Amino acid sequence: MTDNQRIHFILKSIQDIGLPVGATYLSKKHAIPPATIGRTLAVLEEKGLIKKISNKGRVITDKGRNYLIQEELRNAKAKNADKLVQLVSKADKNTLLEILQTRKLLEGHTAELACHNAEDSEIDELEHLMLEYLHLIRSGELGSHIDLEIHLTIAKMSRNRTIYQILKIMLTGDNVYTKFSFVSDKLKHIQVKQHDAIIQAIRERSPEKARESMETHLDQVISDLEKYFLDDIE
């Protein structure tokens, strides 16, 4: 058990007991050495997460309760992120299509938000990435890492941190983005035009046009993916 885990465990125990509790009781209840319990209680008290009630023992404070709530939320987020990573690691057709449909919902919105929130310098950087992507395509490469960076940059420009983190997990897990790039490899010239349209709409600060351009682009990737699996079956 790490120090942070022990702090959480002891604090949760004090909260659950609901009465002033001492180091001896906690040591016997959880089979943890008294010295370790003593150090943990000292840390909790120093942080203001518990307080001493005369000689009766210690109780949790409002700050301590809030700490536990925040810890539970962080743990829940971590578990959900793990589940998302596990989902992304599946390379079957249905999973990839689900990811693309989710991307269409999220990235259409990030393209809209980018029109409102992006700095001009960020749009300049986006156009620079586009030139780099075009160079790689003309050189016969997939350019998937730059393609990924373009989409994540737009998400970051939206200033919606939650969507950005979700997309980052979805698109970087198990090289899933390379899979999307691979199935659309024969239509890269179309993808270049679609990326240009998205960036131009953001440059023009046209939210509706940016959303439509992003959705058109992802519809194309969905179509490419369905055709790829159909050809593979045939």
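That was protein one. Protein two is written in the same sequence-then-structure order:
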Amino acid sequence: MDESPDRPGGARDRRRRPGRPRSEAAERAILEAVLELLGRGVPYGALSMEQVAGRAGVGKATVYRRWANKESLVVDAITTLWTECPSPDLTDGRSTRDHITEYLDTMADLMRSDRAGLVFTSVMATATTNPELVHRYQQVAIEPRREQLRDILRHGMATGELRSDLDLELIVRMLASPIVQMAKTECLGEPLPEGFVERLVDAALRGIAG
């Protein structure tokens, strides 16, 4: 039998077959390259697939095989940032107040991080010129995080800690918006004022507690 390395099925071909790990490594490198470039202050409008490929150390064709356009690539890259906000364990016996506070603390830490902050700013700056990007960012990256907060509130309603007639969408915005405002316009990368999250949660609970 011909076991020539160059023959299909030969030794060299078999060595190439385990391509999945290499493919996953390339994908991680591409997503990381997007975050690095945006985090270094490259505006979304100036970002190119060629830049991303160069930063990731892959060919441009490798990028285009996975993402048809820059918008999809950037949304996927940004989504990886939010994996740092794990779903709360609502069965751990802690109070709804504790769960809300932990959620908002984690959100604040992410929002004021240098990379996430610059990426968020870069995307939001395109709101008037590329509203579809912002919409996709909201749906893919932000909406799942809002659902986590809704789950906490629903749990509190079910346990009787919160009123049963809450307007969930309004409460989610009441709790999350001050964190974004403080992290991106007042604190500018610095920690939020000590006790700010706790005071925010307590002020909200005075109106929504069961």
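Confidence is low (pLDDT under 50) at residues 1-21. Keep this in mind for the problem set.
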